[in-house]
Predict the structure of TetR/AcrR family transcriptional regulator.
Amino acid sequence: MATKAEQRDRTRAEIVRIATRRFAESGYAGVALEDLVAEAGLTRGALYHHFGSKLGLFQGVVDAAQRGVAEAVEAAADAHDDTLEGFLAGCRAFLEASLAPAVRRILLVEGPAVLGWGEWREGDLETSVRLLDAGVAELAAAGVVDGDGLDLGIVTAMLSGALNEAALVSAEASDPDAGTDAAIATLRRMLVGLAPAAAQ
């Protein structure tokens, strides 16, 4: 028999699942809580108990999406022994995850607009950017990029912005997979240019 905590977690996860689909389909402004709770078989009060408000629910949806993308990135990177290949595999996983309409709209379009740049950025820093920062540090330790001559924080920030933009462009392309391939090939060439002078 499930404990109250397990029941609460299951209910919360189900609300997030339904809300993710609805926010992805209709956008934040287009979702009516009455319709959402009716689909979930809950009362409005129950939803407020778990999330406090519609904005709180959307924040929960964004958090779940960010964690899901970060998990995909980490798994892809960990599957490679080579530092550069692992880093590129993680970047590819991010781009591929962003091709999903729900992820793209919720994380890259609605998220910053609804939550505000600062709030959205905080979640991004704790998930994808945290992994990107660790990956750049590993590239520097392995001598792939110049850890002494470069500000690695700036490298991470620039790569993060580039990957977010590449995700949006690839998603709108007639051949998204080709767009992802092109983005990774370009990223590889960029990283080669960041190598220590002696290695170039």
Residues 64 and 111 are 12 Å apart (CA to CA). The mean pLDDT is 90. Residues 4-199 form a domain with the Tetracycline Repressor; domain 2 fold (CATH 1.10.357.10). Residues 54-78 form the longest helix (25 residues).
